[in-house]
Amino acid sequence: MSTQAISPLEGRYAARLENLRGCISETALARERVRTEICWFIGLLRQPEITGADATSLSDADLAFLHSLYQDIDDAALQRIGQIERTINHDVKAVEYYIKERLAERPALAPCSEWVHFACTSEDINSTAYALMLSSTREHCSELLRELLRELAERAQAWAGIPALARTHGQSASPTTLGKEIVIFISRLDQQVKVFSDIRMAAKLSGATGSYAAHLAACPDFDWPALSRTLLNDLGLDQAPITTQIEPHDGIAELLHSLIRINSVLLDAARDFWGYIALGWFIQRPAPGEVGSSTMPHKVNPIDFENAEGNLGIANALAGHLAEKLTVSRWQRDLSDSTALRNLGAAFAHSVLAWQSIAKGLGKLEPNAPHLQAELDAHWEVLAEAVQTVMRRAGLPEPYERLKDLTRGAEEALSRERLHEFILGLGLPDDARERLLALTPSSYTGHSERQARQVLQSLKFVV
After folding, report:
1. Nearest one of 178, 162, 172 to 443, comparing CA atoms
2. For the whole model, what pTM was predicted?
3. Rounded Cα–Cα distance for residues 133 and 459 (Å)
4. Which residues are CB-contacts of 406 (< 8 A; sequence separation ≥ 6)?
5. Rounded CA gap, 204 and 251, in Å?
6. Which of the residues 7, 57, 68, 293 is marked catalytic?
7. Is 329 within 8 Å of 244 (Cβ atoms)?
8. Inter-helix orientation angle 250-279/122-158, to 10°
9. Contacts of residue 155, Cβ cutoff 8 Å, sequence gap at least 6
10. CA 201, CA 455: separation in Å to the nearest integer?
11. Which of 114, 118, 148 shows the shortest CA–CA distance to 36?
12. Under DSSP, is residue 442 helix (H, G, I), strand (E, B) or coil?
């Protein structure tokens, strides 16, 4: 951990983000820029109408060398690119010069070096590189989210039938089950992860203002848009249909807005779990040697859910700003998106930290069955809904009003005995009366368990 890091992402939390760093970072950006330049270079050499070269003139060894420039990019390569950039003050041009230096090492490739970056503007390279990084990031994050869904589902399955007193407006309400409340988040998250996972990134390879003007000046009869589309599709990307100098970033905004919705669902879940711990629904298993408070020895704080809440807020603030900023560019190009794009990794990093914290927090939870039962037993008033509904069906007068008088604002909690006395005095049909007398707060959970298990069965990949 670097003690000089300004951001906790590169300091306190650096080790937790190692895998994400391989997808989206300065190193990943350099790698994908080199990859884009190389793929464009190879694509051109395979078009004899453009280069006059025969595609087969590239040997397997030369192709392997070209692909190794990005596949095996190392610190020495990154340092050399950085050294060139410091001299010329242009990051993308530095990548071009670096590749040309490496081509000079191979006699068959050296004469072809001017096809590197041919007819390209920096944003052709950048839009493709960022699209590749975000595609990789999306895949990595999707798998992390599916793992979190599996963690949630494991607990929802185990706790599907455990009754708990619901708390609408913070007050006692018709009971639910622990599993059903978790499955609600699973169902919401599953839908958002599907949307997130299916978003495709777009890029451009169409020149300084998106018109292929330089391309056509050099080779007017060639179908440049088709080549651009083929090369981008081969990289797993879509071709932006029409652009200025830059790809308009609408796909990036779509991905970020999807991330925001995912994080909002998880923020809702983190706050609810925090609240359920506060209500005593869960016991937290402390880690050996862990301290909860510097002065109160008994404390086991819900710090994982609090950490998640903080990181989700930062992530969504960044993602929201970037989604709004990146889709706006003056005329054909301004550079305000350049520095903004470099913060994409931070939005995903804070998200990943939050997801990790939620998973860690879930691992500490254990339902507090005695407390849950005692809470239900202390709130017989929650059966007022059932009683007045049965009275309505039986045609009895003013059922809601009579139950309101019985249960609302009383100095003493409604007891089982008093509720049963009320039910026995209603003159209900025998079957309805017996059904109500058999009800308890613990059994008044409707289809909660059934709903939870049905949803879990429908999400086969998480069960």
Report:
1. 162
2. 0.94
3. 29
4. 384, 414, 418, 419, 422
5. 12
6. 293
7. yes
8. 30
9. 179, 182, 362, 365
10. 31
11. 118
12. coil
| Of 223, 234, 241, 249, nearest in space to 134 by CA | 249
Distance CA 257, CA 254 (A): 5
Half-sphere exposure in the Cβ direction for 41 (13 Å, CA): 27
Active site annotation includes 169: yes
Q: Which residues fall within 8 angstroms of residue 386, CB to CB, at 6 or more apart?
A: 436, 439, 444
Kindly give the confidence (pLDDT) of every residue in the chain, 463 residues in length, as a single tens digit, with 9 standing for 90 and above.
567 888 999 899 999 999 999 999 999 999 999 999 999 999 999 999 998 866 557 899 999 999 999 999 999 999 999 999 999 999 999 999 999 999 999 999 999 999 999 999 999 999 999 999 999 999 999 999 999 999 999 999 999 999 999 999 999 999 999 999 999 999 999 999 999 999 999 999 999 999 999 999 999 999 999 999 999 999 999 999 999 999 999 999 999 999 999 999 999 999 999 999 999 999 998 878 777 766 777 778 889 999 999 999 999 999 999 999 999 999 999 989 999 999 999 999 999 999 999 999 999 999 999 999 999 999 999 999 999 999 999 999 999 999 999 998 776 889 999 999 999 999 999 999 999 999 999 999 999 999 999 999 988 554 4
Q: How is residue 123 written in tokens?
A: 């944003």
Cα–Cα nearest to 320, from 263, 275, 367, 364: 263
Contacting residues for 127 by C-beta, under 8 A, at least 6 apart: 202, 203, 204, 240, 246, 247
Residue type (1 letter), 427: G
Is 228 among the residues known to form the active site?
no
Nearest 5°: phi and psi at 236? Answer: 85, 20
Contacts for 414 with CB less than 8 Å, ≥ 6 apart = 380, 381, 384, 406, 407
Helices 91-103, 122-158: axis angle to 10 degrees equals: 100
- Could you tell me if residue 290 is left (phi over 0), alpha (psi between -120 and 50 degrees) or otherwise beta? beta
Strand pairing category for 238-239 and 202-203: parallel
Taking Cα atoms as reference points, which of 88, 93, 133 lies closest to residue 116?
93
Q: φ and ψ at 254, to 5 degrees?
A: -60, -45
Chain-centroid distance of CA 450 in Å reads 28
Sign of torsion, CA 48 54 55 61? negative
- Rounded to whole angstroms, the Cα distance separating 104 from 121 reads 23
- Please, are residues 85 and 94 in contact by the beta-carbon 8 Å criterion? yes
